[in-house]
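Attaching the record inline, Q. Sequence:
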Amino acid sequence: MQSRHDLMKNLHILFVDDERLIREMVYDMLGDTVGNVSLAADGEEGLAFYRDSLRPVDIVISDQTMPVMNGLDMLEKIKQINPSQKCIMITAHSEAAYMLRAIEIGVEHFMIKPIIFDKLDTILYELALKIEQENYRAEKERTERRELVEHTFQFSFQTLVDNIPLPSLIVDENDTVQACNSELLSLVAGTEHYPKLLTKELDFKSLFFHDAMTKTSPSFCDWKEEHLYMGEDLAFEFEASHYRLKLKRMRTEGQKRFYILCMLDSGE
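Structure, as predicted:
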């Protein structure tokens, strides 16, 4: 977990109030503790800033009574854009009736005027902690989903190569081995490649290419796409036997490409 100082310095606050002196006061109050404070003079201006801001707003603080568009109308529209947006409503005692609607909209905190800095600072820190926790959970969920997808792909890849009666493997666009079948493992058994192939740590190019200059040349990076474009099999020698390497591009996952490679005796 980040320190209080770092959490506050990472915040981007949007403060909306039609009174210039109050805007300047809050800006000065928060300037030493909050990383970025943006100001707007009414709800319409605040909404436009929220929509167009290059840096996402972490917390919106808004007065209720303003010309053009009041605070609640603005916060409601902001919540429609981002339901999880953290909001603080500032009201006068006479505006307490607005609180019920604010609760329905999803406003997290309320402050009664005048603004007391220590109280505002405490609320901002509480929301900063909440944002950090939500970001952590969201990142954890993304990681778990990504790992699940990768596991599913690994299982599918393994099933695919297991059904090919030729020494075969699947690699990604970076030449990282994703799966290989028992025929290929049998072929490399007893060689230096076997343990690395088992753990998928093998630089599979070392099976087929022995010219260091070829493997490190810039053009070699796209050798798979080049051979697909030319429609040619790749001839190579392994353990004194001659083979042809057949290459096929598989369906992509997002922006990532995968390839299946099968080894055939040169006489086949």
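The chain has a mean pLDDT of 83. Strands lie at 12-16, 36-40, 59-63, 86-91, 109-112, 168-172, 177-180, 234-238, 241-249, 258-265.

More tomorrow.
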